[in-house]
Amino acid sequence: MVQVPAMKRVKGRAPLSVVVAIIGGLALATPAAKEAFDPRRCSTTEGYWAYNWTKRLPYTDQTCPFVDRQISCQRNGRPDSDYLYWDWHLDGCTLPRFDPAAVLEKLRGKRMLFVGDSLQMGQWLSFVCLVNSALHYSARTMERTTTLSVFTATEYNATIEFYWAPFLVEANSDRNIRLGAGGRVLHVDAVELHAKHWEGADILVFDSYVWWMSGSRIKAVWGAFGDDGYEELDAWVAFRLGLKTWANWVDANIDPNATRVFFMSISTTHMRSEDWGRDGGIRCYNETWPITRRGYWGSGADRRMMEVMSDVVGRMRVPVTLLNVTQLTEHRADAHVSVYTETGGELLTAAQRADPRAHADCIHWCLPGVPDTWNQILYAHL
């Protein structure tokens, strides 16, 4: 793995224009000119992470008051910060920077709703923090509940909301997350209890993956939860059934002339350091550098689940934009919360941090961090 010399960010100096790209283990200059982003022609999966030591962070977990403690890595004591200064560059075209003022104008008088799990919540919080950087503190409000949270940009009469539905379809663990994987039962053919909260949105952004991967089998029922018995299905079979239920609702209830619909692809986990050649490593713990191997694909993203996602979305009547962030996420073993997080509502203790094999979280992402890039891609498609 190539090591780039330490680079200091000096206050008061004009920012340097040099960006170093790490491509296949080589440090190269970034190409000077590319065509403008066109979602019909530009692939967001073909690219590379480049270290940009001149980068100005639009927010931090100290300046944005909405970042949950679970993902506030710097505030929680993470000692390194290089993971904050990597940009995703596309091979064929230029990915536009997230412009919070332009986003707020696009959202004027509109309702934007993120729907999904805690990873989607992290993306929502990233989006909120990015637009919040262009707002006066008196020009926004935030209301948080366990099910629906609403950020309002009052001057724009715009809301950016998050709705908790980790499977999209109904489950007995939607409210009782402590039930655990063994006690979860999914209602794979029912979505209405959740979906009634999605009606009327101008922009819908969905995700669902990681909760489906808590075991190779999933308990499913048809009919009421109170009925006796359940059927155990292979996870990918249950995922297809659940996703088709969601897709049927979208096709039956969404007017594509009034509502844009997006679906986020798999957010990769990094549970096996052997995947990227770090023998003796402990998952993502102490990783401070992206995986540089071009086209790297580890065990944290299931290809069959990705194929199910693409197939279901591709057959829908309502146009749904599948935002493929999986490949770019694969490389970022360095950007998870690791031991700089909380569990059960409490920050990890010193003893817990000293035991990363038991406590390192290699699912969730630090903010600022990788979810900002997902939102950069989402912005490019808006």
UniProtKB/TrEMBL annotation:
GO molecular function ontology, one term from the record: xylan O-acetyltransferase activity
Keyword Membrane in annotation: yes
The entry's keywords: Golgi apparatus, Membrane, Signal-anchor, Transferase, Transmembrane, Transmembrane helix
Membrane association type: Single-pass type II membrane protein
Signal peptide: none
A single cellular component GO annotation: Golgi membrane
Location relative to the cell: Golgi apparatus membrane
Domain Trichome birefringence-like C-terminal: 95-380
Source organism, top-level taxon: Eukaryota
Family assignment from sequence similarity: Belongs to the PC-esterase family. TBL subfamily.
Name the record gives this protein: Trichome birefringence-like N-terminal domain-containing protein
